[in-house]
Amino acid sequence: MGRPLLIELATVGITLSEIKPARQTETTQRWEFHVLYDGYPLPTRLEFSRRKNEHFQDCVSTPPSASLLAAQHVIPFVFTHYTAPAAYRQKINALAARTQVQARDVFDLHHLSPHAAAARDVPPKLLEQAIEQLSLIGFSMFHDQVVPFLPADLASHYTAPEAWKAIVEKVRHDLMAALLPFTP
Questions:
Q1: What would the DSSP string read from start to end of 115-147?
Q2: Could you give the CA distance from residue 122 to residue 127 in angstroms, rounded to a whole number?
Q3: In 3D, which of 71, 129, 82, 77 has the Cα closest to residue 108?
Q4: Exposure check for the chain: N or C terminus, fewer CB within 10 A?
Q5: Buried b / exposed e across 56-80, counting CB within 10 Å, b at 16+?
Q6: DSSP state of 180
Q7: pLDDT tens digits along 20-63
C-alpha cells in the first residue's frame, strides 16, 4: 500500500491494519488487510485483474459514482477499469476455467446480467464449460463464500436457497442464450 493512499484514507478517518504482502499471479494482483473505521475492523481484499483475453481498449477511465463517494466522504478520483461487457466475458472465463469453482463468479455474472449480450463474443466451448461448472455450485457454497461479504440488507435477502436458485437460473439462461443463433 502506497503512502499517498494511506494519507488519503486517514483524512476521512480510515486506517489499515494487518496488511498482508501483495500476492501476484499472471492475471491478478491482490492485497488483504483490515480497514479500521470508527474503531471497527473490516476484513478487506483489494484485487486488480489483468486478463490476457481482454484488450486494453476494453477499459475506460472514470470516477466512481459521485453519490457513493459523497456518502463515504471520499474525494473524487479517476481509475481505469474494464467495461461491464468485458467484465462479463472475464467472469464467464473464470467460471469455466477454475479448477475450484467460486460462487462469486456466478453472483457477479448475475449482477452483470444486463450485459449478457457480451457472451456472444465468448467461444461456445467456453460457454459450455461455464454452464457445466454452474451445476457444481450449491447454496451452501454461495452462503459461505458470498453472503458474508454483502451489506446486511442484501445479505438478508440472500439467506434463502430460493434466492440462489433464481441467480443460477438467470445465469444459466443468459449463458445458454449466447449459444443460440443470433436473431436481430
A1: GGGGGGGS-HHHHHHHHHHHTT--HHHHHHHTG
A2: 7
A3: 82
A4: C
A5: eebeeeeeeeeeeeeeeeeeeeeee
A6: S
A7: 777 777 777 777 888 887 777 777 777 776 655 555 667 888 88
Distance CA 119, CA 89 (A): 6
Q: List CB contacts of 63: < 8 A, sequence separation 6 or more.
A: 69, 76, 77, 78, 79
Angle between helices 103-111 and 84-97 (to 10 degrees): 150
> Using the 8-state DSSP alphabet, how is residue 110 labeled?
H
CB neighbourhood size of 172 (10 A):
16
Give CA–CA dist 139/158, Å, rounded: 10
Distance CA 54, CA 82 (A): 8
What does the DSSP 8-state code read for residue 167? H
What does each C-alpha distance from 122 to 50, 84, 132, 161, 175 come to in angstroms?
17, 14, 15, 29, 10
User: In the prediction, which pLDDT does 54 show?
Assistant: 53
Q: Which residues lie across from 42 on neighbouring strands?
A: 35
**Distance between CA 170 and CA 162 in Å, rounded?**
12
- Reference 46, options 32, 59, 34; nearest CA is 32
Q: Which residue has the cell 461491464?
A: 84
Which of left, alpha, beta for 38 (phi over 0: left; psi -120 to 50: alpha)?
left
Single-letter residue type at 177: A
